[in-house]
Every structure is written in structure tokens, then in C-alpha cells.
């Protein structure tokens, strides 16, 4: 297999820490703006000295829902030199008020940026990705330098003319691009799925096994902190939808019904909604694989830790197994709601969760694959139609539903004979890609159809 065909994504590019509510609309634009800042700071002094402002134009889904998703705040944060994991929520949410003007230092000069410098260009466009943004360094009305970026989902970005700003040039220990490749390696090497991903991560990053495990523990802590904050919070979420949080009340109901057979599901719903509500509030979450789907894996792992009493090592390994599924979908279809609809976000998260549950339960690779396939299969065609452009309705409850489907996919896969499985994970990901390509763009993170039109006051 050629290295150029293989998946070169790091686990820590898939699981990224940053502010909600949408990785493709906040983390991606923030990273694009930061990359642009670095580039204009490398310009010759004679060009820097005559620059006056930075202008930004958002297209496609970024234009349709970017205001509600905080894209303008994310761009401001990036131009102010912030990485996603460095954004304190209250500071981030205060950015880009009507009268705000920021001074961006470039060389000996400082250029201005504020709400008037951002344009949401709605309507038809010819760009290769539905999440497209232009950043321009200006001298009055004359552009001095401009770059075109694509926010391709999960906080990943590409700059026009480059294959990927995330691409890692190091060689993989086990180059792969399909589940079929993975299974062949596992058979040859007699290793688990988690060990396979861990060895690749070592070769990609050059980090020690101990360092990778520490970072995985940190990712789990960020996930579970989001769950705990969400369980402790109440009140109304930001935005015009005026949606009230309900994770805390769900958790209380779970405690009241602790002896009921329904308690398990109530707690799972509470944990997933807690993290997802934190995302909707613009607080710090972990992309898993996106911010819009950042309640599924945290909710499942929190349940596995507090109810099933899995130890930290097993949860770390479960995250690695989940990452394998996320890599395959990202590489062979997409995790972007603007490309795949919500099957690319919740569908992928549910498949990752099903693999995580199966791996931690001691299932073999065929069962893990079947669980992930079942989860994706039953999200095919799911639309992304957020009301008001906010990641609230249907997104918060959809995280809980995705986790429940993940658990059921694990049960279905682990209860059956995998020799009778008719559809492979590779096949269903191909179907997912074809479905996303065929789906009307109105149902792909534009708020132009579906549930987005059901509450007109938003």
C-alpha cells in the first residue's frame, strides 16, 4: 500500500479540545484565522506597514449558520493568537459585540478587525467544500494578501493549494485506509485494535507510549469534566432558541428511579445531554469526532467509568478503538455535517461508541466491526437541520439517541454470529459517502429545511 493513500491522522487531531458549539464552525475557522495570522506576520515589512485591516468572507454552511455557531467569534480568537484549547469560555463568548474593534499586531504595524469586517455571503457558490472562508489583508479596499480555507469537519482544515494542514509527514508503522487493511494487520501481528492504533500513534508523533497514555487520560478528563459541569448547570442556553438545559433534571430522575430497569438509560441520556449542553453553551468540549457530536463518547465513557467500573487503562484502549472507526469514516467519507448531514457527525460518533463498547467488553475485531457498521447503517440519511443555526435542537437529544443506538449496536453485534454478517464496515462507509453526495444541501447544516423551519421565531 502506498503511504500517500494511508490514513495519517493523529488520535489527538480527532479528539481535540476547544470551545463549542461546532468544530467545523468554531475550531476550524479559529485554526484557519491563526494560520492566516502566522502567514501575514511573515510578509515583508513594506507590505505589513501599509496594511489597515483584515476582512473575512464566509460561504456555504459557514454563512448560513455561522453567526449562531460562533464562527465570527472563532475567527476573532484565531486572529488574536488563540489556539482552541486556550479559549476561556466567558472570554470567547464576549468576543465580537457590535462595537468591538481589535488591534492585530503584524510587524511594527497593527491592523483592525471587528464585526464590520466579517461578511456572511449566503447563496450559491463554486467552492470545493461547503464550509469555505476567505481571509484578506487589506490596504483600504485593496487586498494585499488573501487565503482560501475549507473547514472540513471535526476542526480539520485545508488551505487552497494544500492537501491538508493536518497531514503528518512521518511514516506509519502500519499504513492502512480500510477496515480490511486493519484486520489483515491484526491477524498478522496478533495484536488488538487498540494496540494497532497505539503503535501507529507512536510512529506518527514520535512520542513515548507513556506520553500518549497521559494525553489520552487528559482527553478523558476533559470529556468527563464537561459531563460534570453539564450535570451541575441549569437555566437557558445562549441564543434565540431559548432552550432550557435538562441534563440535571434527567440525572435527578435517574437517582429517583435507581432501582428501575429504566435508570440505566436515563443516566446515559443525562450524561450525553450534559456534555452536549456544554457544547451548545460554547464551553470547552472534546471533538469526538466533532463538537456537534461531543456528547456521545463522553456520555458512554462516563457511564462505563461510574456505573460499569471500567478502569482507566480499559477506557484509554476503548478511545483508541473508537479512533480507528473515526479515522476510517473521515478518510473514506466525511465527518462534516455540511457534507454528510448528521450521519457524518452523530452517525460516526455512534459507530465509534459501538466499537468502544465492544472492545471494552472483550469482543473480537469482527464483532467490533459489526457493531460500528450497525450503528452507521441506522444513521444513514440523517439530516443536519439545526433550528436557528444553533447546535441545540435537534443536536442535544440526538447525542443521547446516538449513544443509545451505539449501545444497541454493540448488543446486536455481540449477540449474533459474525460469520453471517452481510455488510462490512467498508461497504457501509461507501454507502454513507454516496448518500451524503446525493443528499440535498438544504439538509446539510444550512438551516434551510426540515426541523430548522419548524420554529419560525428562531
Task: Describe, in plain words, how this protein is organized in 3D.
The structure is a single chain. With 458 residues, the chain is of the alpha+beta class. It folds into two domains: 21-154, 60s Ribosomal Protein L30, Chain: A (2-Layer Sandwich), CATH 3.30.1330; 179-453, no CATH class. Helix content is 49%, strand content 11%. It has 18 helices and nine strands. The strands form three sheets. Strands 5-2-6-7-8 form a five-stranded mixed sheet. A two-stranded antiparallel sheet has the order 1-9. The mean pLDDT is 91.
The rough form would be described as: globular
Tally of alpha and pi helices: 18
Widest sheet: strand order?
A: 5-2-6-7-8
Sheet-strand content, in percent, reads: 5-15%
Order of helices and strands: HEHHEHHHEEEEEEHHHHHEHHHHHHH
Helix content: 40-55%
List the helices and strands and how they pair.
Elements: H1 11-14, E1 17-19, H2 23-40, H3 45-48, E2 53-59, H4 60-69, H5 71-79, H6 89-94, E3 102-106, E4 109-113, E5 118-121, E6 131-139, E7 142-153, E8 156-159, H7 179-189, H8 193-205, H9 209-232, H10 247-256, H11 263-280, E9 284-286, H12 296-306, H13 312-332, H14 337-340, H15 346-360, H16 365-377, H17 395-415, H18 425-438
What's a concise summary of this model?
By secondary structure, the protein is α+β, with helices and mostly antiparallel strands.
Task: Jot down its keywords.
single chain; 458 residues; alpha+beta; 60s Ribosomal Protein L30, Chain: A; 2 domains; 5-stranded mixed β-sheet; two-stranded antiparallel sheet; 49% helix; globular
Amino acid at each position: 500500500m502506498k503511504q500517500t493513500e494511508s490514513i495519517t491522522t493523529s488520535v489527538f487531531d480527532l479528539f481535540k479540545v476547544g470551545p463549542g458549539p461546532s468544530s467545523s464552525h468554531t475550531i476550524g475557522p479559529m485554526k484557519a484565522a491563526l494560520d492566516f495570522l502566522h502567514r501575514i506576520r511573515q510578509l515583508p515589512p513594506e507590505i505589513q506597514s501599509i496594511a489597515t485591516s483584515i476582512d473575512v468572507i464566509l460561504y456555504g454552511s459557514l454563512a448560513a449558520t455561522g453567526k449562531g455557531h460562533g464562527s465570527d467569534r472563532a475567527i476573532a480568537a484565531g486572529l488574536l493568537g488563540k489556539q482552541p484549547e486556550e479559549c476561556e469560555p466567558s472570554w470567547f463568548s464576549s468576543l465580537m459585540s457590535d462595537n468591538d474593534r481589535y488591534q492585530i499586531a503584524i510587524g511594527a504595524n497593527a491592523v483592525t478587525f471587528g464585526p464590520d469586517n466579517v461578511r456572511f455571503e449566503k447563496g450559491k457558490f463554486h467552492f470545493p467544500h461547503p464550509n469555505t472562508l476567505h481571509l484578506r489583508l487589506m490596504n483600504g479596499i485593496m487586498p494585499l494578501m488573501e487565503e482560501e480555507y475549507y473547514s472540513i469537519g471535526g476542526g480539520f482544515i485545508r488551505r487552497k493549494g494544500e492537501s491538508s494542514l493536518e497531514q503528518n509527514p512521518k511514516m506509519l508503522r502500519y499504513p492502512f485506509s480500510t477496515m480490511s487493511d486493519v484486520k489483515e494487520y491484526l491477524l498478522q501481528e496478533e495484536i488488538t485494535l487498540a494496540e494497532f492504533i497505539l503503535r501507529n500513534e507512536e510512529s506518527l508523533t514520535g512520542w513515548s507510549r507513556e506520553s500518549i497514555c497521559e494525553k489520552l487520560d487528559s482527553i478523558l478528563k476533559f470529556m468527563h469534566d464537561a459531563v460534570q459541569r453539564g450535570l451541575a448547570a441549569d437555566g437557558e442556553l445562549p441564543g434565540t432558541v431559548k432552550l432550557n438545559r435538562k441534563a440535571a433534571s434527567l440525572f435527578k430522575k435517574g437517582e429517583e428511579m435507581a432501582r428501575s430497569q429504566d435508570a440505566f438509560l436515563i443516566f446515559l441520556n443525562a450524561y450525553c445531554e450534559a456534555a452536549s449542553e456544554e457544547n451548545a453553551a460554547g464551553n470547552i468540549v472534546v471533538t469526538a469526532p466533532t463538537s456537534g457530536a461531543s456528547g456521545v463518547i463522553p456520555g458512554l465513557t462516563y457511564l462505563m467509568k461510574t456505573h460499569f467500573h471500567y478502569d482507566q487503562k480499559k477506557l484509554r484502549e476503548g478511545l483508541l478503538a473508537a479512533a480507528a472507526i473515526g479515522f476510517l469514516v473521515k478518510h473514506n467519507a466525511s465527518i462534516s455535517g455540511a457534507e454528510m448531514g448528521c450521519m457524518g457527525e452523530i452517525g460516526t460518533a455512534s459507530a465509534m461508541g459501538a466499537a468502544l463498547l465492544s472492545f471494552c467488553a472483550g469482543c473480537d475485531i469482527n464483532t467490533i466491526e459489526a457493531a460500528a457498521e450497525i450503528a452507521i447503517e441506522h444513521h444513514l440519511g440523517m439530516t443536519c437541520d439545526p433550528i436557528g443555526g444553533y447546535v441545540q435542537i435537534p443536536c442535544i437529544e440526538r447525542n443521547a439517541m446516538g449513544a443509545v443506538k451505539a449501545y444497541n449496536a454493540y448488543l446486536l453485534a455481540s449477540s449474533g454470529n459474525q460469520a453471517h454478517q452481510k455488510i462490512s464496515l467498508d461497504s457501509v462507509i461507501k454507502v454513507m459517502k454516496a448518500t451524503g453526495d446525493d443528499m440535498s444541501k438544504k439538509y446539510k447544516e444550512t438551516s434551510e429545511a426540515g426541523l430548522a423551519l419548524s420554529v419560525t421565531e428562531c
